[in-house]
Amino acid sequence: MSTLSEQLQNLGLKKLRPSGREPDQMREVRITRNFTKHAEGSVLVEFGDTKVLCTASVDRGVPRFLRGSGSGWVTAEYGMLPRSTNTRSDREAARGKQGGRTVEIQRLIGRSLRAAMDLKKLGENTITIDCDVLQADGGTRTASITGAFVALQDAINVLKKDKNGAMKGDPIKHQLAAVSVGIYEGHPVLDLDYAEDSKAHTDMNVIMTASGGFVEVQGTAEGEPYTQDELNAMLSLASKGIGELVKIQSAALQE
Amino acid sequence: MSTLSEQLQNLGLKKLRPSGREPDQMREVRITRNFTKHAEGSVLVEFGDTKVLCTASVDRGVPRFLRGSGSGWVTAEYGMLPRSTNTRSDREAARGKQGGRTVEIQRLIGRSLRAAMDLKKLGENTITIDCDVLQADGGTRTASITGAFVALQDAINVLKKDKNGAMKGDPIKHQLAAVSVGIYEGHPVLDLDYAEDSKAHTDMNVIMTASGGFVEVQGTAEGEPYTQDELNAMLSLASKGIGELVKIQSAALQE
Amino acid sequence: MSTLSEQLQNLGLKKLRPSGREPDQMREVRITRNFTKHAEGSVLVEFGDTKVLCTASVDRGVPRFLRGSGSGWVTAEYGMLPRSTNTRSDREAARGKQGGRTVEIQRLIGRSLRAAMDLKKLGENTITIDCDVLQADGGTRTASITGAFVALQDAINVLKKDKNGAMKGDPIKHQLAAVSVGIYEGHPVLDLDYAEDSKAHTDMNVIMTASGGFVEVQGTAEGEPYTQDELNAMLSLASKGIGELVKIQSAALQE
Amino acid sequence: MSTLSEQLQNLGLKKLRPSGREPDQMREVRITRNFTKHAEGSVLVEFGDTKVLCTASVDRGVPRFLRGSGSGWVTAEYGMLPRSTNTRSDREAARGKQGGRTVEIQRLIGRSLRAAMDLKKLGENTITIDCDVLQADGGTRTASITGAFVALQDAINVLKKDKNGAMKGDPIKHQLAAVSVGIYEGHPVLDLDYAEDSKAHTDMNVIMTASGGFVEVQGTAEGEPYTQDELNAMLSLASKGIGELVKIQSAALQE
Amino acid sequence: MSTLSEQLQNLGLKKLRPSGREPDQMREVRITRNFTKHAEGSVLVEFGDTKVLCTASVDRGVPRFLRGSGSGWVTAEYGMLPRSTNTRSDREAARGKQGGRTVEIQRLIGRSLRAAMDLKKLGENTITIDCDVLQADGGTRTASITGAFVALQDAINVLKKDKNGAMKGDPIKHQLAAVSVGIYEGHPVLDLDYAEDSKAHTDMNVIMTASGGFVEVQGTAEGEPYTQDELNAMLSLASKGIGELVKIQSAALQE
Amino acid sequence: MSTLSEQLQNLGLKKLRPSGREPDQMREVRITRNFTKHAEGSVLVEFGDTKVLCTASVDRGVPRFLRGSGSGWVTAEYGMLPRSTNTRSDREAARGKQGGRTVEIQRLIGRSLRAAMDLKKLGENTITIDCDVLQADGGTRTASITGAFVALQDAINVLKKDKNGAMKGDPIKHQLAAVSVGIYEGHPVLDLDYAEDSKAHTDMNVIMTASGGFVEVQGTAEGEPYTQDELNAMLSLASKGIGELVKIQSAALQE
């Protein structure tokens, strides 16, 4: 049975996507560890022209609501440099508050990473993930999560070597990656760039484990509602993309 | 073929849910229109003990980015009264900022309602939806959206009668309702109350049209990742619940 | 001797007030206890179309300046739902600060309730009163205080039953109610609704104890200064109104 | 008939007040015009050790809600220098918000001054009153209003000389002054200083016109409720104090 | 050898400066101690028409980062009364944040004063300097520092007399004063007033010790860059001005 | 005549600086243009391990105070990524305000760049410089200014090619660079890294033009005051460093 992209090629629809990619083709993904020197984990993740610096910082101690519980905490913050986008956007620090989109994204990142962990085994340590977008071209939140996992793993490795780190075994239960899928020009596509994202009828972010479990699915109809069949097609593309991302993460972690 | 709840009964598992409800049973839902007198639409929606006041306010004119476009706008704000919950939470107005959860929810409400509308037909009018939780017992965001749709319809009806309202046909494309589903004690259940929500392994909010299209699906693994089968089971329960909600909305709108 | 309203009737001035009320006639007042389920005290108070939800929340412990003093604390917060008014007003949580009017009112509510109490007998407990206006038609601050007293009494009753509550006798020294009076169209009137309030030359809020003591008098000339005689006439009307409110509170508390 | 202070002397109660003042005796009041050089009106007002700098600044134009109405506006802001008090208090500009007390006071000042004016005659000009407390010893709000009136008059005089000022006659309808009264150690006293204010059972601020009309009465029971007789006694003392303040204002304005 | 001002006079350039001052002539400087009564140090400093109230407030204890270190802390806050300037500026407390210029100045004041002290000898005490500009005519930051030093010395003297003050010797290492210099109309001038400051090509603030050491030099080209020769000429003028200021400080401290 | 570093070598003081650099030796400086793709100018500047991304963004129009003046505007914002430093610092956007140090630095950057320009020739365009520190190791503000100048030049070149850009000739009057100098272990040194900066007795930032004019000199005594001789020695080192930086800028601009 031919793939959707093969069928499209048969029909002569070679330019479905602005980038010329196949519907099920990810952008080139690069993961650079130790991009900066101070953080316990520091990863530059690139999904094509989308570039996000993900750092993981370890602090002893936990927020008040966990003190004495023996459990650790993982939280995330997200930001875009003002000119990471085509038009300069206001600096949130200067405006005095984080926008709704920022808040939504950083909550998603933190929640996903915590779902991949056994916080009890982390001991009373806090790991703060910072995802700062240096250059945006669509998919910053999925790139952030994919890079953040690698930074988190590096930080955990630092903690493992620390005899006073109070870890109680490996707190990472699942390897985690994220990718966007959507309905673009009526067709399901994988890993939308900005040109696609801004025109897609449906935009879905999927966060999965290496073993294929769903950690978060967020699918939003921008124009028309989507059907169960479209949902299934998108999940299937996402699963393919996650498989590739997991391999790239693993390769980076073995360097 | 027997339903899941019948199978459970056969197994003698009568007390799966704290409330004694069947897995596919919604709480009692009540929709009271004209709950307050000033707003163009004012709806008290109750999902069991969850009570939300949804108002729709019409203003002539649109935000700057739409001026002159001929298009209208729908936006939403969400709040919880400080003691709508079991333990009093800080008043956001006194703290000086809305929390991340609030921001996330009000963005969801606004986005969903806009997806149900043809904003061009609304003309340069803005409708602001306020969802204020008087009493919380789980599912405040899905109750909010379900009630907000009715308040929105009432406000549109007011605009329709207004000869200067600049409407260009019926801007409502889809009837919309929302419900939560989840995996509780290993079983998919419909319309989680607080006792379930706080212990569910997976929590999913589903927003659908009366004709069965998906407008938003947000499924979060709180503990373990969920499988494709679990996802499908949850979507199936959601579809059943949305069917019931749509009927209750329609009945209320015909009173 | 004939009352002022009788004298007015004799003069054929039947339509002094927009509502058709007599000058010394209160709106219908309703007090509904246990309006919501979580708070120790939860009261819906209605002065005609003005509807305020007053909750009283008990917390162990006191603010820093009272720690170790053995004394308790009572504080209040006030808010209006954005569309409780004829025109939607900004949500204070979204604007990031409470307006001056809000601050002024919540300080008044807290100060009055504290004046009715012996905080030493409360022990080191804090009671937070939340007054949230669901629908506004004038007199929201006086309705708030009148309802808040009942919610406070209910919360104190909960504390009385709590063996660890650290109470040292009944902390309520005075039953308290509040009413507005004013000079409308040149005549003193009791319990102004919005139609009157927005045109009154003088607006006075009076908070009194059941035994007739003054706790707070705030009389503001909106247009022309008022005389000692007008002041006395207003205080006299207020005294009559407080007498009726105290009875309604007592009846509600005995249900 | 002997005065209250004479009666007290007869009883040998010579040291009722910490300052040694008679119950009906004001502190020494000084009004210095042109205290700083930039403002249209600049007045240092001293009630004993309470020292407030009141400036009145004229701006052409009015806030949006008045544009095109032909009417002017008067507004006030109030602040305390951080070490104007015995213990340093936080600088509100550094904390990022004005406290509730500040908001309450500046609303009182602005409201009172507007009640003394015919804003229509002011034309579309805005006068901003700034009352900044250099040294506090009780009664800062009443000193502020008393000084602000003189600064306002000076600013009006500047506008009168301005041919382009758009004034339409004298906008000042009433001369205005303010004084505090209270129940201290069971006795009504005039013009409370900090030593009295911090221990008074009742604290009342009275704002009156030169012709004896009430503009604002705010009487608060700090401990026990007060009676109608006590209220009358306080108003009587206030009336005496206002009479003296009005003379001092007039004398200062004629210098 | 003739001075620069003598040379200018020889050239007939008598009106170089708007004020008629010589290039190396300071404005009249006055220092009034005990200007207000509550603060441990309270100084009104006047550089001509620039008037700043500097208070020094002593608190036991230090900020968290110094607790247990045995070392004290000195910090400063700066503000301008809204109408201290020719045109009224917004009240920072009402705007909800301090402007950039304010932040820059208060950091400079605090940093300079700390550089003059041995904080170890201060013991775990915090001294907060408040510099509030009552009237501005250029040079408010240099007047602030010059006055703040005197207020600081007064506060230290209070601490010296306090047996429980935990001081460990005299914490003041250097007497400190500050003055502005600049290039005005092509000539170096000392102690710029507003008329000069607003037109100067270069503006330099110099903070020196009584013994001639530099604590801070901040020289900014407003128009054209300045040369090493101009820099040296400005520093020379500053040194002369500091010498005079130090004498005025010392005289004030001996009163 | 031997240089200071030669003299030191003669004395056997080979390890004065932690990095092993000579006293007058800069770190390796790299300037990478077009580091990101969206901004009109985008420069990564590296002073050793200090890495700052400087972007220049062009907007048509100017702030309100310049509208209609025909003049342009240049402004700057500065930020540090939370983990650009050894210990993670709070994200300013999350805290809700920029810290004092940030405000101080971004004002310095903007002021310096404006001093290098003829804003009249820029026409009514605004250029916003963003300096975001990816990795910090001392000297972030001087690296920022040095890199920002190159980004600014690139943005000006974009404007030059734009026929509608309203430029009136080359607005850049001076090439600008910045470097830090200080007194470390008693010796003047050039271009302090963090290890030196944190222990230096004096820290001076010098901003100069390619032709040797001073644009800004800010010299702060951290411990002991510094002498005129030390000031001169530091300025001499700065002049040498600026000469090198200007060459590196020019080389980068010719690539």
Describe this structure in words.
- The structure is a homohexamer of 255-residue chains.
- Chain A is α+β, with helices and mostly antiparallel strands and 255 residues long.
- Chain A has one domain (22-254).
- The longest helix of chain A is centred in the C-terminal third of the chain and has 27 residues, at 228-254.
- Chain A has helices at 4-10, 92-95, 100-115, 119-122, 140-161, 194-197, 228-254, and strands at residues 29-33, 41-47, 50-60, 73-80, 125-135, 176-184, 187-190, 202-209, 214-221.
- Chain A starts with a helix and ends with a helix.
- Chain A is globular.
- Chain A has a 5-stranded mixed beta sheet. In chain A, strands 7-6-8-9 form a 4-stranded antiparallel beta sheet, with helices on both faces.
- Chains D and E meet through strand 3, helix 2 and strand 5 of D and strand 3, helix 2 and strand 5 of E.
- Chains A, B, C, D, E, F: Phosphate binds at residues 101, 139-141.
- Chains A, B, C, D, E, F: Keywords: Nucleotidyltransferase, RNA-binding, rRNA processing, Transferase, tRNA processing, tRNA-binding.
- Chains A, B, C, D, E, F: This is Ribonuclease PH.
